[in-house]
Amino acid sequence: MTRCLGRWIAAAMLWAATAPTAGAETLATTVEQWGLLGSWAVDCAAKPDRDKGALLTYEIHRDGRVMYRRNFGDAKDENEVVSATVNAEGLLNVMVYFPSLHQAREFGLLLAKDGRLRAIYNRSERGEYTIRDGKFVATGAPTPVQQRCD
Which of 41, 42, 97, 100 is the most exposed, having the fewest neighbouring CB atoms within 10 Å of its CB? Predict the structure, then answer.
């Protein structure tokens, strides 16, 4: 009985020691397998611009963290992706922490069969949407599709 209990304790300690690493690998694996990694823009030939389209890049750092870089031309930032899951319809639900905003935002991305990307929703931690059902809340205009730039 003592031997069995010792094995359970050893297995639990090993699981606890590797669980955070496994979670980080799962996040990186999820975004990689889904096809998110790389740079995206509405028009890859255009220079990044806040009004005409940013260059958005998702990458895995050497330390295993998944990062989200935004280039607006006149401003750039880098933020950590803290979670990513794929739902039954294939929508990638991504949560990014923005230190400059002191908040996390969640957005849903859809990858079309032709390889283009489209934002389906974007909301704050408090549930305030800027994009809902593939449309900008403020204008009702559909979100533009993005293409891979690299």
Answer: 100
